[in-house]
């Protein structure tokens, strides 16, 4: 079973839920928050690189180029600027779609490749796969796509999504069997949860909500879930003890009471 743990808003405890769900149920965790992966802070595995991630990178042949600008007109990411006798290419803006090569009428573009990230693997108490986007690169989605090639469909695979509701989060959730949306009971939490719910509905994936820092804020998240018929799977209290464990890199599931709750959470999702 593949379970994605996502959150519209950052800092609401998404990684806490993903790591503890994996630990309590002997699952495999896939850290898809490739811009700043931190699940291994809790797993403490020795990570080794197992793969590189490349993006198609156009290479312009100025000998055959006629500076017709068709490539620049096609590129919706504005990664190409055609001057009277030169071409400027802004690699950080390029998505690697390959469209410029296809539309060039003079066959003046070659298909190169550029490394944008790496995939890591490690094992301690449980297995962990982690994607890492190179510093300075803007496109996290291809790293997540590559990382997801390692996702095992049998057993329990937990995908820790990047925060937010943009392409990297959607790529993580896509093709999951279930999405846990983690939120906090605040107006910001509710605002971003509503957007995340719209996305999982469009993706047609069964989903439920976990409220972290419960006791803080108001009841508006609970009211929203009731109106929408979304099950609240767990409430994690706003507590100094939990915050202290987190700050020390200690997983909640190390405590029997919480381990049981995360086992029950998986059973409920099943
Ligand atoms: S489309 Fe081809 S020929 Fe035209 S400017 Fe671009 S690279 Fe040059
Ligand atoms: S590969 Fe796509 S995104 Fe990159 S420069 Fe060409 S058209 Fe633009």
CATH class of the largest domain: Alpha Beta
Order of helices and strands: EHEHEHEEHEEHEHEHEHEHH
Which small-molecule species are bound to the chains here? iron/sulfur cluster
- Computed over alpha carbons, the radius of gyration is 22 Å
Enter the CATH topology name of the largest domain.
Rossmann fold
Amino- and carboxy-terminal Cα gap = 8 Å
Any low-confidence stretches, pLDDT <50, length ≥5?
none
Could you give the order of strands across the largest sheet?
Answer: 3-6-7-2-8-1-9-10-11
Helical residues, percent: 25-40%
Biggest sheet: strands, sense, closure?
9 strands, mixed
CATH superfamily of the largest domain: P-loop containing nucleotide triphosphate hydrolases
Overall form: elongated
What does this molecule look like?
By secondary structure, the protein is of the alpha/beta class. The protein folds into 2 domains: 2-27 and 155-269, P-loop containing nucleotide triphosphate hydrolases (Rossmann fold), CATH 3.40.50; 54-115, 2-Layer Sandwich (Alpha-Beta Plaits). Helices cover 33% and strands 27% of the residues. It has a 9-stranded mixed β-sheet, with helices on both faces. The model has no long low-confidence stretch (mean pLDDT 94). The site of one iron/sulfur cluster has 13 residues, from helix 3.
């Amino acid at each position: 079973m593949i379970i994605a743990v996502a959150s519209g808003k950052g800092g609401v405890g998404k990684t806490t839920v993903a790591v503890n769900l994996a630990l309590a149920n002997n699952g495999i965790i896939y850290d898809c928050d490739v811009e700043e992966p931190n699940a291994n802070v809790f797993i403490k595995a020795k990570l080794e690189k197992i793969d590189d991630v490349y993006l198609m990178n156009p290479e312009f042949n100025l000998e055959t180029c006629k500076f017709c600008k068709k490539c620049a007109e096609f590129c919706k990411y504005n990664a190409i600027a055609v001057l009277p006798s030169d071409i400027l290419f802004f690699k950080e803006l390029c998505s690697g779609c390959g469209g410029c090569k296809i539309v060039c009428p003079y066959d003046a573009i070659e298909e190169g490749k550029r490394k944008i990230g790496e995939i890591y693997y490690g094992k301690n108490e449980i297995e962990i796969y982690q994607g890492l986007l190179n510093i300075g690169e803007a496109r996290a989605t291809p790293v997540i796509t590559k990382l997801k090639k390692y996702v095992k469909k049998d057993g329990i695979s937990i995908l820790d999504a990047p925060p937010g509701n943009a392409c990297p989060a959607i790529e993580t959730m896509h093709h999951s069997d279930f999405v846990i949306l983690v939120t906090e009971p605040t107006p910001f939490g509710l605002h971003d949860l509503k957007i995340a719910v719209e996305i999982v509905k469009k993706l047609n994936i069964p989903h439920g909500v976990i409220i972290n820092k419960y006791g803080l804020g108001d009841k508006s998240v609970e009211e929203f879930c009731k109106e929408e018929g979304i099950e609240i799977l767990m409430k994690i209290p706003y507590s100094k003890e939990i915050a202290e464990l987190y700050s020390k890199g200690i997983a909640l599931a190390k405590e029997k009471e919480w381990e049981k709750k995360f086992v029950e959470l998986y059973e409920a999702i099943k």
